[in-house]
């Protein structure tokens, strides 16, 4: 039995080119992590790849939740958070399937929480410059200035507010009222960080290098950025008017 205090949540939609590779990369690390794949009805057979690996090699540390269609990144992660809390994991990670997030950085995020005492560790592209590889310059500028915009509007002092590579301590996800998280795309990532900050949790940005996917198709869209732009204004209003929950140990 490969026991672990940590689970990596990977949401998927049509990731057959990357799925087995990312699973083996995580399981090849010296520290033992478990993986939970949340698949939104991928027609390309992504879920079947996971099932095959569960049946033949990794049944004690690889898990799968299948959903009926594309229900949004935010709802996928919230489903994963609830599953992880129910199964008593202490450190819960968000990571993409496409190797834009380097699995070798997982132990660094873990250490920031488990050893240094932070509640949230963010794999940050912008805390030490602009560490993005193979993105079109327009995409880099949009992402970078989106984070700047969030900082200006909300006063939230995190450099990479839209980052999707993170580690949460269990108590963060127990405290945040997950049923009140309203956004699904980029704004979901911002809202989760901002809510953790408003609840009083300690956040650390761990510098990472973000590499654009080599295989498969990006799921980004203009609507995701639009949600983030207008969602930030709503978060600023919430910051003035909402009573945030007290930390649950």
Characterization of this structure:
This protein is of the alpha/beta class. Helix content is 41%, strand content 16%. It is built from 8 helices and 9 strands. The chain has helices spanning 19-27, 46-56, 73-86, 106-114, 137-154, 170-175, 186-199, 222-241; strands spanning 6-12, 34-39, 62-66, 91-94, 120-124, 132-133, 166-169, 203-207, 210-211. It has a 7-stranded mixed beta sheet with strand order 3-2-1-4-7-5-8, sandwiched between helices. Strands 6-9 form a two-stranded parallel sheet. The longest helix is centred in the last third of the chain and has 20 residues, at 222-241. The protein is globular. It starts with 5 loop residues before the first strand and ends in an 8-residue tail after the last helix.
Question: Helices and strands in order, then pairings?
Answer:
Elements lengths: L5 E7 L6 H9 L6 E6 L6 H11 L5 E5 L6 H14 L4 E4 L11 H9 L5 E5 L7 E2 L3 H18 L11 E4 H6 L10 H14 L3 E5 L2 E2 L10 H20 L8
Parallel strand pairs: 1-2, 1-4, 2-3, 5-8, 6-9
Antiparallel strand pairs: 4-7, 5-7
Helix pairs in contact: 5-8, 7-8
Which quaternary structure do these chains form? single chain
Number of helices: 8
**Spatial separation of the terminal alpha carbons:** 28 Å
Instruction: Give me the secondary-structure category.
Output: alpha/beta
Shape: globular
Strand order in space, largest sheet: 3-2-1-4-7-5-8
Which strand-content bin applies to the residues?
A: 15-25%
Q: State mean pLDDT (0 to 100 scale).
A: 88
Report the radius of gyration as a whole number of Å. Answer: 17 Å
H and E order: EHEHEHEHEEHEHHEEH
Count of beta strands = 9
Biggest sheet, open or closed, and with what strands and sense? 7 strands, mixed
Low-confidence stretches: none
**Helical amount among residues, as a percent range?**
40-55%
């Amino acid at each position: 039995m490969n026991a672990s205090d940590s689970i990596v949540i990977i949401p998927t939609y049509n990731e057959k080119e990357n799925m087995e590779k990312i699973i083996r990369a995580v399981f090849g690390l010296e520290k033992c992590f478990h993986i939970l794949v949340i698949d939104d009805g991928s027609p390309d057979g992504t879920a079947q790849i996971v099932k095959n690996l569960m049946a033949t090699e990794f049944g004690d540390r690889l898990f799968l939740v299948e959903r009926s269609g594309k229900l949004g990144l935010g709802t996928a992660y919230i489903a994963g958070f609830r599953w992880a809390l129910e199964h008593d994991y202490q450190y819960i990670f968000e990571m993409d399937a496409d190797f834009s997030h380097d699995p070798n950085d997982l132990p660094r995020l873990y250490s920031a929480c488990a050893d240094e005492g932070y509640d949230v560790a963010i794999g940050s592209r912008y805390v030490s410059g602009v560490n993005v590889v193979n993105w079109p310059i327009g995409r880099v500028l949009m992402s970078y200035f989106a984070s700047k915009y969030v900082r200006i509007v909300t006063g939230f002092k995190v450099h990479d507010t839209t980052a999707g590579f993170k580690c949460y301590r269990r108590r963060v996800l127990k405290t945040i009222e997950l049923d009140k998280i309203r956004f699904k795309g980029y704004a979901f990532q911002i809202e989760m960080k901002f809510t953790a900050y408003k609840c009083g949790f300690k956040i650390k940005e761990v510098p990472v290098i973000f590499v654009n996917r080599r295989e498969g198709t990006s799921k980004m869209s203009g609507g995701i950025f639009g949600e983030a732009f207008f969602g930030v204004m709503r978060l600023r209003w919430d910051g003035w008017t909402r009573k945030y929950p007290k930390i649950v140990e």
